[in-house]
C-alpha cells in the first residue's frame, strides 16, 4: 500500500512563519480559513465586496481584495469556483505573485487542463480534501478530519511537499490520512468520482429506482423513503465498516438481493459507459465542454438544473422532509447561475 501520512508525518513549522491568503470564502474557503486560524496560522481572506466578504468579516477575518490578499501573503490558496479561477488569477493574482510564494489549489483542474499557467519561480501544489467544505469544518471542530490528497506540481523552494503536508495537518486532514498523488491523478479521479459514482451515478440511480416504482403504481412517498431517504442509513454503514459491515447489518434477504440483483443493475454495459466517461475526462473533452458552456453563460447547465428541480422526487421530498424536524431541512431554490 502507498504511504499514508498522518499528523506525526507533518511539521507545522513549514507554515508557521507564513501568511496564508484564502481566496474565496465559500464551501471550502470558510472551512480552510477557520481551521487554519484555529491551528495558529495567520490567515487573510481575499474576496470581492459582497455576501462572502461580509460573512468572512463577521467571522472575524481580515478581508482584502484578491490583489491585496495575494500581495500580503506567502501562500495563496485559490478556493474560487474552478470555472472562475482563470480570469481572477490572470487579473488579480498573477501580477502580485513574488518569487518563492506558494500557489495552492484544492483541485487540479485549472493547472492540469492549462487554464492557469503559473510562473516558474513559485511553488505550486494542491491540498484536496476528499469531502465537502462544511464537513472539513465540522469534523475539525469535533477533533476529526476529512482525508486529503496532496500533489506537487512545481517545487522551487525545495519545501513544497513539506508545506503541503503542514497545510493538510492545519486543516485537520492529517488526522484522517493524507495521500500523495499527482495533479493528473487528482483531477481525473475527482472528476470521474463525482460524475460516475458520487454525484452523477448516485442521483441517476436514485431517480431511476424512484421512477420505476412510481410508474408501476406505487405511492411516490413510499418510493421516496425507499430510494432516497434510506440511502443515507446504508451509506453510513458502508462509511463505518465497508461493504461487509453494511451487509452484516441488513437482513439476509436484503443481502441475497444485493448479491443477485445488484450486478444486473450496474452491469457490464454500465461499466463500459463508465470507461467512456473516464476517457472523455482523460482526453480533455469533458473539460473543454465545461469551459465552453461557461463562456456561453451556461445555457445547458441552467436548463437541466431547472428541469431537475421540478422532478417529482424533489417535490415529494420537500413535503416529507418538512415533517421530519430531525432532518435539518435545506431548501435550495433554483437560481440561474452565471459564469460571470
Ligand atoms: P464555492 O462556489 O463554494 O466558493 C465560491 C467563493 O468564491 C465565494 O466566496 C465567492 O464569493 C467567491 N468568488 C466567486 N467569484 C469571485 C471573484 N470574481 N472574486 C472574488 N471572489 C469570488 O467554491 P468551492 O468551495 O465549492 O470550490 C473551491 C475549490 O475547492 C474548487 O477548486 C473546487 O474544485 C475545490 N473543492 C471543492 C469541494 C467542495 O466540497 N465544494 C471539495 C473539494 C475541492 P461571492 O460571495 O462574492 O460570490
Ligand atoms: Mg470535484
Ligand atoms: Mg428494506
TrEMBL record:
The residues covered by the KARI N-terminal Rossmann domain are 1-181
Organism of origin is Anoxybacteroides rupiense
Q: Does the keyword NADP apply?
A: yes
**Record GO terms (molecular function):** ketol-acid reductoisomerase activity
Q: Which family does it belong to?
A: Belongs to the ketol-acid reductoisomerase family.
Annotated protein name in UniProt: Ketol-acid reductoisomerase (NADP(+))
Q: Which cofactor does it need?
A: Mg(2+)
Which key words tag this protein in UniProt?
A: Amino-acid biosynthesis, Branched-chain amino acid biosynthesis, Magnesium, Metal-binding, NADP, Oxidoreductase
> Enzyme class, one word?
oxidoreductase
Positions that bind Mg(2+) 1:
190, 194
Task: Indicate yes or no for the key word Cell division.
Answer: no
Residues bound to substrate: 251
**Pfam family membership, one:** KARI_C
Q: Where does NADP(+) bind?
A: 25-28, 48, 52, 133
Active site residues of this protein: 107
What does the record say about how the cofactor binds? Binds 2 magnesium ions per subunit.
Q: KARI C-terminal knotted domain: from which residue to which, for each copy?
A: 182-327
Q: What does this protein do?
A: Involved in the biosynthesis of branched-chain amino acids (BCAA). Catalyzes an alkyl-migration followed by a ketol-acid reduction of (S)-2-acetolactate (S2AL) to yield (R)-2,3-dihydroxy-isovalerate. In the isomerase reaction, S2AL is rearranged via a Mg-dependent methyl migration to produce 3-hydroxy-3-methyl-2-ketobutyrate (HMKB). In the reductase reaction, this 2-ketoacid undergoes a metal-dependent reduction by NADPH to yield (R)-2,3-dihydroxy-isovalerate.
| Residues the record lists as binding Mg(2+) 2 | 190, 226, 230
